[in-house]
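Annex B. Sample input.
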Amino acid sequence: MSGKKTQSNGETKRKDGRSNLTLSLMVVIAVLTALGVILTPRSNEFLPVFNDVILTLLNVAADILYLLGGGLIFFGVLLITIRFINIKLKDPYRPSGVTRFLSGYLTLSLEFFIGAEIIKTVVVRNYEEFSLLILVIISRGLFSLILYLERRWHGTAETE
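Annex B, continued. Sample output.
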């Protein structure tokens, strides 16, 4: 098999334990690093163009993460509402356990929002924006912790 092993999930691994994806990522990082070293002396010529492109890409990435987080909340609320209605129609006195599942969707969406806020830290230009951004990240982190603790607490109290 020429030094390669195929795993059950279809991913090819070499004898040294690295997958083809890992090797590909290492090559891409090495090429980008070499390009960075080569273009650094000429950065004054390309810097304004690269700055605009990078800032635009970062803003688009942050907006996509915001949309994914909001869509996840909408999707989770829709699924949890359907689940709650189905459980209550079958047996109105049975515990539904939906708060545990809803807190899971909210926690995951908060992770998307925090990721978008972290990307925004690169884009901000003054101290006021940065301090507001830090407060938003801290508050969302606290919300995430509270939702995690609530999910654990409801996980032992309500059984399915």
